[in-house]
Structures are given as structure tokens and as C-alpha cells.
Design brief:
Layout (H helix, E strand, L loop, with lengths): L2 E5 L5 E5 L4 H10 L6 E5 L5 H12 L3 E5 L2 E5 L7 E2 L1 H6 L6 H9 L1 E5 L12 H9 L3 E5 L2 E5 L7 E3 L5 H11 L5 E5 L5 H12 L3 E3 L5 E5 L8 E3 L4 H13 L3 E5 L7 H9 L3 E4 L3 E5 L10 E3 L11 H8 L5 E5 L9 H7 L3 E5 L2 E5 L8 E3 L3 H13 L3 E5 L2 H4 L5 H7 L3 E5 L1
The protein binds uridine-diphosphate-N-acetylglucosamine.
The site of uridine-diphosphate-N-acetylglucosamine has 23 residues, from helix 1, helix 5 and helix 6.
């Protein structure tokens, strides 16, 4: 089992160029199957989840070549419409291929995505929306079988602004007959990036970033080039690492507008933040960080669930009591037990966690139980007294590209142990 060994106490100080967004690159790679052409995607992060997505594309018959951070995807000879269980199990977000494969092949077979470590993660909203577009769906023996002679636009209202469901609708509807509108759509920046990619391919989509998206079906789409937006969650993780160690950091290749909910909290905790067009500069307060009254996770532009655990690690050493309300995923407090091993004082009742800040954390052996919870453990370890071993770091590699290299370059004492 791979682990990180971290000796805490060093300030995180320096500059980091932020990777491309995992949650943008995955749906955009799925979208490449729509056009049957040659696509060049720039700024793709080197992540396990991207590798799995490449395997899915190859399994469907697409040609994929990787040169550094650039991916070349040629979907002309795509000849499959099935994602086997072995690949679906590795990454739940492969469900995002469903809309794209149906639009291209008029049929799709994917295995049922299993339950995930952060909660139930149902796909009912995806399936209901696809049915509205004319897809016949049957579920048998753990597989979802989809068929559609013709996809037809409709007015789709989402009961919850699901990111994945919104993306699946955009993918399925962009070549459907007529107009599709999505109300109560998710508004995440990654959806805006998907719209930009699809429109560059020739789709006619408007409204992403607002809660109503309009998709006018077109007959044909074309291969294009596209640059992936910066990863706002990774950016906020590095800001928190600097804040946790009384350091200062300059982030390059970021979009500060995507990060307002997170930088507002860091300011409330006493950090000074200065933003430019594509840079963020953070300096920590001289005194202890201050607690935050309430952090409530919400769909964008609210506070992201994905950064809840790193921020909880941060508040665990702040002065005072902070309260977290997790509204998106019911099982996203698994890092609490691990933080408590390091001396944090946290009480959980259902979806609420109350964090009483302690003077300092102490090194311990802890586990990354999921991606963002794993990042939280790294952050806690950087700030703790002594040595921490973070085990099971395969989860962290799903979303953070070479995190140990970036942190080491800013002064961290962190080593990967195979
Ligand atoms: C995406 C992100 C993930 C992030 C999440 C919320 C990607 C690859 N992943 O995940 O990092 O944490 O958004 O910002 O972009 N739901 C249903 N039925 C459905 C679909 C969702 O009930 O059919 C519920 C989920 O259980 C959850 C909520 O809706 O409670 C939000 O899920 P959703 O926005 O769909 O998250 P993902 O797209 O899976």
C-alpha cells in the first residue's frame, strides 16, 4: 500500500502552477465520442481518473495518444457502445459517457456504477432525463441497457442540480431533434467549460452557468481543440496548505472568479488574499487562524462539498468553534475519525460536524479513505508536530497530480513510499 510520510512544521511558501480541472476534463473527454473526429485537449492533468477515462475511450474503439499534458483523441472509428463492469467499477463518473454514447450510437450498455465511499450516489436523475429525451432504458444483471431510435428534445426539470445529470443531458441532447431546456441545472464552472467545448464542436447550447440551459439539436459535430480550465478544488487545497502552516503562496493558472466561496472563508479565518486575472496570492495571519461560524456545502456558487474536508482540517487548528453542514453527500465525514487520531476535537451528528479548534495536531498513522479526505490528511500532517504517515494514497492520486512534488517545491517535507 503506497503512503506519504510527512514531517510537519515546515511553512508552505512558494509558487504553484495549478493543474487542469479533473471534473472538467472527464466530461470533455466523454464528449469527444460525439464528433467522430480528431480532438486535441490541452492542460489535461496527470491523474488516475484521466487514465481510466482514456481506457474507456480506447475500449470504445477511439484512438488516444498522450503527449505531456495534451491528449489527442480520434473518435472516427469508434465501434463499441459498452463500458464493461471492470472499467465502471474503477470510476463512477464513467456514467458521464452514457449520454455521449447514446447520442453517437443510438444505444449504450454500461454496468451499474457501484456505491461509492462518500455516499449512495444514485443515477436516477440521469436516467429520468434520458428517458424524457426518448431513450428506452432497461436494467438487468447489473447492466443498464439503453436504446433510442431517435433522440427528441424536451423540457427537463432536475429535482436537484446534479452536475453529472446536467452534463449527461447536454451530451445526449446536442444532436437530438429539436430543443431541450434544462431547468434547475447545475451551474458549476466545469459545466460552462463543457458548453464551450461542445459549442466549439458545432453544438448550439446557451445558458450554462445559469440554472436554465437551452440546447438546440444540430445534425453534425466536428473535431476541435480545447484548453481545460484550472482546477478550483486543487487550487483551494494548496491555499489551505499555506494557511495551515502560516505560510504564503502564489497560485498561477487559476480563475479567482471560480473560487469566491472558498477565498471568502479563508479571509474570514484571517488570511490576506490578493487576486489578479489568473493568479491568487495568499498570506497567513501572524496570529492563529480564526474559526468559521458556519460552512454549509451547496451546489455552485455555494461552498463546494469537495473542499469541505481540507477546510475541516484547517479549522481543527483554528482559534474557536467552527460548524460544518454537509448537504451534498451523506457520508462525507470519514476524515473526522482520522483527524481525531491526530488530536483534533470534532463531534459529528448526522450531516453536522462541530470542530473545536486545538492548539496543535500531532503526527500519527492515518488513512486516506477517499480523494478529498486524503487531501485533508496531507494538510493536517503539514501543520502537525512530528511525523504523519498517510496510507492508501491511491485515492489522492485520483485527483491531485504529483501533489508531493508541488508541496516539496514549496518547502514541505513529504515523501512517497511505495
Ligand atoms: C460531481 C463531481 C464531484 C462533486 C459533485 C458535487 C465530477 C466528475 N464529480 O459529482 O467531484 O463532489 O459533483 O459537486 O464532476 N443525485 C441524485 N440522483 C442522481 C444524481 C445525483 O440523487 O441521479 C444526488 C447525489 O446523491 C448527491 C447530489 O445529487 O447527493 C449531487 O450529486 P452530483 O451533482 O450528481 O455529483 P456528481 O456529478 O456525481
Amino acid at each position: 500500500m503506497n503512503s506519504f510520510v510527512i514531517k510537519g512544521g515546515n511553512k508552505i511558501e512558494g509558487e504553484i502552477e495549478v493543474q487542469g480541472a479533473k471534473n472538467a476534463v472527464l466530461p470533455i473527454l466523454a464528449a469527444t465520442v460525439l464528433n467522430g473526429g480528431k480532438n486535441i485537449i490541452y492542460n489535461c492533468p496527470g491523474l488516475r481518473d484521466v487514465e481510466i477515462t482514456i481506457d474507456v475511450l480506447k475500449n470504445l474503439g477511439c484512438k488516444v495518444e498522450k503527449r505531456g499534458k495534451t491528449l489527442f483523441v480520434d473518435s472516427e472509428n469508434m465501434n463499441g457502445c459498452t463500458i464493461p463492469d471492470t472499467l465502471m467499477r474503477q470510476m463512477r463518473s464513467s456514467i458521464i459517457f452514457l449520454g455521449a454514447i447514446i447520442a453517437r450510437c443510438k444505444e449504450a450498455v454500461v454496468s451499474m456504477p457501484g456505491g461509492c465511499e462518500i455516499g449512495n450516489r444514485p443515477i436516477d436523475l440521469h436516467l429520468k432525463a434520458l428517458r424524457q429525451l426518448g431513450v428506452e432504458i432497461t436494467e438487468a444483471h447489473g447492466y443498464i441497457n439503453c436504446k433510442a431510435d431517435k433522440l427528441k428534445g424536451d423540457n427537463i426539470h432536475l429535482d436537484f442540480p446534479s452536475v453529472g445529470a446536467t452534463e449527461n443531458i447536454m451530451l445526449a441532447a446536442c444532436m437530438a431533434e429539436g430543443i431541450t431546456t434544462v431547468t434547475n441545472a447545475a451551474r458549476e464552472p466545469e459545466i460552462v467549460d463543457l458548453e464551450a467545448f461542445l459549442n466549439r464542436m458545432g453544438a448550439k447550447i446557451s445558458g450554462s452557468g445559469s440554472n436554465v440551459i437551452r440546447i438546440e439539436g444540430v445534425k453534425k459535430l466536428y473535431g476541435v481543440e480545447h484548453q481545460i480550465i484550472p482546477d478550483r478544488i486543487v487550487a483551494a487545497t494548496y491555499l489551505s496548505c499555506a494557511a495551515a502552516t502560516k505560510g504564503s503562496i502564489i497560485l498561477k493558472h487559476v480563475n479567482p472568479n471560480h473560487m469566491n466561496a472558498m477565498t471568502a472563508v479563508l479571509k474570514e479565518m484571517g488570511c490576506k488574499i490578493y487576486t489578479e486575472k489568473s493568479r491568487i496570492i495568499l498570506s497567513s495571519p501572524v496570529n492563529r487562524l480564526k474559526a468559521v461560524k458556519r460552512i454549509v456545502t451547496m451546489p455552485y456558487p455555494g461552498f463546494p462539498t469537495d473542499i469541505q474536508s481540507p477546510f475541516m482540517a484547517l479549522t481543527s487548528i483554528a482559534d474557536g468553534t467552527s460548524v460544518f453542514v454537509e448537504n451534498i453527500f451523506e457520508n462525507r465525514f470519514q476524515h473526522v475519525e482520522e483527524l481525531m487520531r491526530m488530536g483534533a476535537d470534532i463531534k459529528v451528528d448526522g450531516r453536522i460536524a462541530v470542530v473545536q479548534g486545538v492548539e496543535s495536531l500531532g503526527g500519527a498513522t492515518v488513512r486516506a479513505k477517499e480523494l478529498r479526505g486524503g487531501a485533508a490528511m496531507i494538510l493536517a500532517a503539514l501543520a502537525a508536530d512530528g511525523v504523519t504517515t498517510v496510507e492508501d494514497i491511491k485515492y489522492i492520486d485520483r485527483g491531485y497530480e504529483s501533489i508531493e512534488k508541488y508541496l516539496s517545491s514549496c518547502g514541505a517535507n513529504i515523501q512517497r513510499k511505495e
